[in-house]
Amino acid sequence: MCIKEITTKRNFNLKMSNTELVAAVLPIQEHWLPLSNLDLLLPPLDVGVIFCYQNLISVTTKLEFGSMVRILKASLAETLVSYYAFAGEIVQNLAGEPEVLCNNSGVNFTEAFADVELKEINFYNPDESIEGNLVPKKKHGVLAVQVTQLKCGGLVVGCAFDHRVADAYSANLFLVSWSELAQSKPLTQLPSFRKSFLFPRHPGYYDDSIDGLYVPIPTIPLIKPETLNPNDQAISRIYYVTGEKINHLQSLANRDQKSTKFQRSKLESFSAFLWKTIACGIKETSNSKNFRFGIIVDGRTRLSNGDDNQEKLLKGYFGNVLSIPFGNKKIEELKEKSLSWVANAIHEIIEKAVTREHFLGLIDWVEAHRPEPAVTKIYATDDDGPAVVVSSGQQFPAREIDFGWGEPVFWSYHFPWAGKSGYVMPMPSPKGNGDWIIYMHLMKWQLELIETSASHVFKPVTANYLNLM
User: Which terms does the record give in the GO molecular function aspect (predicted)?
Assistant: First the structure.
């Protein structure tokens, strides 16, 4: 299987029919919402997500596109009352740091039509089908929404949100609330914008290990595609991995473990396989000697520290509560060692950030460097060798994003950022059978060697797989 040539051309025509601002249905008192110290670690990047629906309310009844749009707009306006930060704008304060101006300026809501059937969309190559087509380019505010009608009567809901304001967990809270209000259901979880959870301590304290993971930096070095060799350009692909393969990788990763106490998780096992697979494909003549690998860790359960009340409050916290620990190994070592050894290395990476003290220290570290911007080193440094970051989307509540016309038949996050580190997001499959959907944004050469040496694990997402035929 060969990677197709890099292209931004779509295999269908797209027509934008209407764009308007959707504001909260109730008045909102204009106010400033400062970003937390953990928010300030995120650069100005937009994250996309799509949900695809077949219009099959019943055998005999289908909703018209206009009716679905009205439902989406009305429920969005209701949802923005609670999630008012998404209806605001990012502005700079006097210190030059970003803040959210909660002024209910609204969300860009675009209606579009694509002359393609759902089963014809090339989900495997989101650069062709999703990028600039089904996910909107955010030009205003914090959130943008695009609803695309398909030739078959299906529907795609695409969103783009500013990562500085919300992480994937927060976006998921919003999406579930939006779908609940679309069906006139009460909200199961109200968002909390209580930033005091993440206030720095006085006096502040952080371990020296934070200096190894984060660095003050004016701007993140971004890739200019025109300056790169085609094989060094980053592209996106979406695969599926069967539950059977995931279980097999976990079995291999635990083969050398002496006790069940040290059993590695599915995410650790998958990450170890990915790290080792890419390393094994790097030629000995390469200038790269080291390979950095990071894992995104959510700090909500870590900060609660077993306190039930704190855990309940943090469960609804809206904002970024992330850390990205990483490790750096010699490529030859990754090639030679067993998958179990690599899985242990992944576990050691995660262990750096699974304590309350790590997140409190990170908050204090940011405070000590403000107002100078800072970012995780794996995103910012020019160290020799490749770098990949894996996020965990296994808690993605995609099946709950039902606006009244059924569960989505496909979903994916979409994050084709211009940084130098690769990004991988595993998510549950719409089949609900233990399979994973894997969004990958990696260098072209990395994806080529994955498809060459690991095609038995990574399979392109197709209409057949999604049962759309």
Answer: acyltransferase activity, transferring groups other than amino-acyl groups
